[in-house]
Amino acid sequence: MERILIIEDELPMRTALEDVLGAEGYRVLTAPDGERGLERAVAEKPDLILLDIMMPRLDGYAVCKELRRLSNPALILMLTAKGQIEDRVVGLDAGADDYLVKPFSTDELLARVRALLRRAQRLASVPTTLRFGEVEIDLRRHQARRGSRPLHLTAKEFAMLRLMAETPGEPVSRERFLDVVWGYNAFPTTRTVDNHLASLRSKLEHDPEAPRWLKTVHGVGYKLDLLAHK
Question: Does position 35 have pLDDT exceeding 70, yes or no?
């Protein structure tokens, strides 16, 4: 069964989460603050981390950024009382996979956990490296190069590429991008997706106006055309 690490400084919340997840059959690890949570995440490599944001010594944003800097592949579900869109953006930009605002129901928590773990199973078959002509992208390490030169992609752009790579050749809807990359419709308009996709094309495509790899599926969204790599 999957292992879940809870990093939460409030003992009642930590205990409640441990009980709920344990009752579902998950193997549960805990840490009472960010520093010890980071150490445990690195040492024990859990499948999923429930990460509180407001903690002493090292907050959840810092823990998340450091785990991603270390290329730790654990899924991260941030738990916080902060519900503003700006707070969600900061967390997702730091590398979190999803965001849950307190107070939340047990049913919603478990549904999010199951969804993230299902996604992890799909990701296991996703290539870790993508090539677009002379561009090479390492999805695991969040690194990109054009020839010998580093290429800057944002965390959102890496996440969009990873989502399309999960189902190569199949379209991903704008709504799906918003749910997975930005977190449950954090933005009110699908133009957000269009703008980020246009940015990706400007960085990866030889001719962004006639894209070879990142293609539009009219009325639906966008797809990654792996056949164009051959």
Answer: yes
CA 77 to CA 181: how far, in whole Å? 13
CA distances from 24 to 3, 17, 28, 32, 138 (A): 12, 11, 10, 22, 34
Residue identified by tokens 């738990």 is: 79
The one-character DSSP state at 65 is H
CB-CB contact of 100 with 31 (8 Å)? no
Spell out a b/e string for 169-186, using b for 16 or more CB atoms within 10 Å of the CB, else e. Answer: eebbebeebbbbbbbeeb
End-to-end CA distance of the chain: 38
Q: Residue 56 above 90 pLDDT?
A: no
Take residue 66 and report the two structure tokens written for it. 């450091």
CB atoms within 10 A of CB 160: 24
pTM above 0.70, yes or no: no
- For the four alpha carbons of 219, 173, 128 and 204, in that order, the dihedral sign comes to positive
Q: Residue 149 to residues 79, 82, 118, 129, 137: CA-CA distances in angstroms?
A: 38, 39, 35, 17, 12
Q: pLDDT tens across 162-221, in order?
A: 899 888 889 999 988 888 887 654 555 778 899 999 999 999 998 999 999 999 999 899
- What is the sign of the dihedral through the CA atoms of 53, 48, 45 and 142? negative
